[in-house]
Design goal:
Blueprint (H helix, E strand, L loop, with lengths): L1 E3 L1 H12 L8 E4 L9 H19 L6 E8 L2 E8 H8 L7 H4 L7 E6 L3 H5 L2 H8 L6 E5 L11 H10 L1
Parallel strand pairs: 1-2, 2-5, 5-6
Antiparallel strand pairs: 3-4
Helix pairs in contact: 2-3
């Protein structure tokens, strides 16, 4: 199972909740969207979360509204269903990735990007240690930023897979 950014966070969450036939390991590349660790994310989305909660409570959760989002450091407006918005940005709805890390038992390759601010903001080496429950798990940092790290990870991934 391989995921980048939000896909990386989702892969971490998935690997703690399911035992999948044939799944040999989990590769997360510059995992993002760890909303419980991001004060900036909370600041940007706080009013939109309150608005979305009000819409859901009023029975309008399946209707689309304009909300603020933070993605790759940029604040944007997004028009989306209120209930879906909450599933991505409400800390009471979206799982806390950090809280589930110790439950990962699959071999895990966690790749951070040397020029990605999330590597330091989330303190990825320490997060990896919480999830390092398998002797085949590995943390590695490769060159590049949040987006370019994917293409720069191929060699690291292939070497890790060979060791499985």
């Amino acid at each position: 199972l391989v995921g980048h950014s939000l896909g990386g966070a989702s892969s971490l969450i998935y690997s703690t909740q399911k035992r999948a036939d044939g799944l040999l390991g989990v590769v997360v590349i510059a995992p993002g969207h760890m909303i419980h660790k991001s004060k900036k994310m909370l600041k940007v989305t706080k009013k939109s979360i309150m608005k979305a909660r009000e819409k859901v409570e009023a029975g309008e959760g399946e209707e689309k509204f304009d909300f603020k989002e933070l993605n790759t450091g940029k604040v944007k407006n997004v028009r989306i269903r209120a209930d879906v918005y909450l599933s991505f940005y409400d800390r009471d709805v979206f799982p806390n990735v950090e809280d589930s890390l110790e439950d990962i038992t699959y071999p895990l390759l966690w790749i951070g990007a040397k020029k990605d601010r999330l590597t330091s903001v989330y303190d990825m080496p320490t997060l990896f240690e919480y999830a390092n429950n398998n002797d085949k798990s590995q943390y590695s940092e490769v060159k590049g930023g949040h987006k370019s790290v994917v293409k720069n990870s191929t060699e690291t991934i292939l070497k890790w897979i060979d060791k499985l």
